[in-house]
Amino acid sequence: MADDKLKNVSNKVEGLVDETKGRVKDAVGGLTGDLGLQAEGKFDQFTGAAQQDFADLYEEGEGVVEKAVTLVRDKPLLSLGIVSVVGLLVGWLLFPRGKRS
């Protein structure tokens, strides 16, 4: 668990570094008129921001999983009831009963 959090922080930092590097490339490309460097900078900015967003989503997902595990541990019968109802609904949606003659 601690390794996942450390890796997530590492991904955020790496994304921030890529985004900053992209901003610098974009600015230098704009000053020198180098469209290739400017485009490379914008791409680096995009990938850095996407990496940071993914790390944030991963953290949120971990929180949801922890809440679900706590619910199952604390209220197993309620959890079983919820899963049963969801299973029935999915079954009815995927395999509807046809009209019988």
From TrEMBL:
This is CsbD-like domain-containing protein. It holds the Pfam family CsbD. It comes from the Bacteria. Keywords: Membrane, Transmembrane, Transmembrane helix. Residues 11-61 form the CsbD-like domain. Belongs to the UPF0337 (CsbD) family. The chain crosses the membrane at residues 77-95. The keyword S-adenosyl-L-methionine does not apply.
